[in-house]
Each structure stands twice: as C-alpha cells, then as structure tokens.
Amino acid sequence: MNTLGKTLTCRAAIAWAKNSPLSIEEVQVEPPKSGEVRIKMISSGICGSDDHVLKGELVVNFPLIPGHEGAGIVESVGDGVCSMKPGDKVLILIIPQCRECDACLHPKGNFCYKQDVLPCSGVMLDGTSRFSCRGQKIYHSFRTSSFTEYTVVPEIAAVKIDDAAPMDKVCLISCGFPTGYGGAVNSAKVTPGSTCVVFGLGGVGSAIVMGCKASGASRIIGVDINEEKFPRARALGVTDCLNPNKLEKPVQEVVMEMTGVGVDFAFEAIGLVDTMVAAWNSCNNSYGVCLIAGLAPSDAQLSLEAPKILSGKTLKGVCLGDYKTRDCIPQIVTDYLQNKINIDPLVTYQLPFNQLHEALELFHSGKAIRCVLLF
C-alpha cells in the first residue's frame, strides 16, 4: 500500500495525564512536513527519562506519546530532506544536531538549541503536532515519541545508520549507551589505573561502568539501593558494590574511607539531588571530576558547600556523552558491528509492544538493565 503523503493509523502508547497508566490507542500520524521524516519504529528502549516524564517530574504537556530511545526505518520524508530516504535504517535522537546553532558550531558543544528537553514544548519545530487520537491533539515527547508504531521527527533529530545494524538492539545507541559509555570515555576521559564510583546501576550507569572498564580504571565502585543489580554490575566491571540503605555512614564517607583520598571520577546516573551531592562529595578534593548524567526534576535545586569548590575538583554536566549526535552516533553503531564495543549485555529483556505494561513493571522492579520494546 502506498502511504506517501497520507495520514496513517497505528497503535501508540498515550499518557493522558501525569501518573496515569499508559493506554495503547489507535492514533493518527500525519505525513512529515518540510524538514521532517516519518519513521516506522522497530524497537524502543525504556529509559529513566521516560519515567520522569510519566511521573510529571519534568515540565511537559499532556496527553503525549512518550519514548525517545528508538530505532526504525524511514517510511517517508518531507520536502528538503536530503540526509536519508525511505527504506534507510535510522536512530532517533533526543538531542538533535542542527549544525547551525552556537552549541553545534562550538567544538565542545552538543546541546543543540533546537532540542526539546529543557523545556519540552511537545510540538514540532513549526509549533504543531503530528499526532491525534479521538479527534484530540496528542503531544510529542522530546520531539521523538518512540512508543508508537510510526513517529514523525525533525530530520535533525534522526540519523542514518549501517544497513547491517540489528534493529532489535541498536536502539540503545540512540540514548542510553552513548550517555553512559560516552560519559566515561569521551566526557570524563577516565584514565588507566584510576578509581571511579557510579551512582545508579541501571541502563546508563551500567554503560558508564563499561566505559570506565574499557578506559582501564583499576577500581569501580557501584552504588544502588537495589542489590539485584549487583551481580550484573560485577560482570560488567564493578569491583565493589554498595547499598546506601545498608550503610552505617553516608555513602560518600564510606567511599572516602575505601579510597583514602576520594575517587578520581564520580558519576551520577539517577537524577536525584541527594545522589548528585553524594557523588560530588566522593571525589578527590584536589583533582576529582564529578559528572552528572542523570536528569533531575524540573524544580530541583542543587546546593553544595561553596568553600570546597575552591580546592580544585570539577563538577560537569554531560548529555549524550558530549557526542555531536548526527556526527558521532553512526560511528558507535559501526564500532558495535565491528565488535569494538558490545551493547548486548545491556539488553536484558525484549518484549513485544503489546506487553508494554509488563516491560514497565520490569523497569520499575530494577530487574532490567534495559527492556526493549519490539514493534
């Protein structure tokens, strides 16, 4: 059937309001406008940022279709699109790369000004939505919305990848893997023989561990309140596991005692102010580097002891591993295909889209590093 230029009807998960169960509905997906692409989704990971959206911890507009970590095949393209064509395999990108704004043009910048995360408008670049259900407009999530059989994204928020890519797994390279692995390898530049601590051993935290190990870290301390994650974390490279709820002292004090001087690199992959402060206070006061990869609630404020900043340690935020997404993500896929990196251990469950609620239960239970939905 020729679908070009036509509105499609497909299944999608809709959050009608914050803290409401996702409802799988029939939605109408309009054709792409100028500078946009419509994508048939093949797989989507469930990321912690999606959970923040559903809980209303980020400022978003409801009703919306969540999801942002996705892989699919281009169904059609709008006017002016030249970097991909129908039939191409692509990853969608929560952080686009317009290649025009200050962030994109700066050698070290990657937080494109045309992103729709902070804040999230829920609409495309022209201010309108491509989704509707029961005659009502449905908002996009981060201009990606991967919990749907078809989605529409700006061309700058998608990138063509190798035709050989296994589409049931590479969705992780859309967000979680580069955020974590890149945070260690590209942003922090973890050094051989260094000591590291990782707060949060979910999908992003596990990828951070992989990056620390690949960089030659001699000691990797993993911190999580769910001890079911510890065996997998050890298999990925964690040398010591800590459950803050079972410690007699604050976790940062324990880390300081374990290392004597604090860690060289601390990573926060949860998005909570308390763990951000704990990560900061776990660092060596003179040269430690603390990287924040977790997305905090919109109204959260971070408070640190100001005098200790003077000692020389560094606090840095990192998004998508500091990678310029359209330039760098395809190479990560190629590295995976060439066995230079291995994302397979991060995919702990794969479930069909109609088992979305079971997948969310696995996510909330902590039994999954990444649960991937298959369409």
UniProtKB/TrEMBL annotation:
One of its GO terms (biological process) is small molecule catabolic process. Gene3D superfamilies: Medium-chain alcohol dehydrogenases, catalytic domain, NAD(P)-binding Rossmann-like Domain. It is found in: Cytoplasm. It comes from the Eukaryota. Pfam families: ADH_N (PF08240), ADH_zinc_N (PF00107). One of its GO terms (cellular component) is cytoplasm. PROSITE patterns: ADH_ZINC. Residues 17-373 form the Enoyl reductase (ER) domain. InterPro entries: ADH-like_C (IPR013149), ADH-like_N (IPR013154), ADH_Zn_CS (IPR002328), ER (IPR020843), GroES-like_sf (IPR011032), NAD(P)-bd_dom_sf (IPR036291). Its cofactor is Zn(2+). Its main location: cytoplasm. Keywords: Cytoplasm, Metal-binding, NAD, Oxidoreductase, Zinc. GO terms for molecular function: alcohol dehydrogenase (NAD+) activity; zinc ion binding. PANTHER family: ALCOHOL DEHYDROGENASE, ALCOHOL DEHYDROGENASE 6A (CLASS V). Dimer. Belongs to the zinc-containing alcohol dehydrogenase family. This is Enoyl reductase (ER) domain-containing protein. The gene is Adh6a.
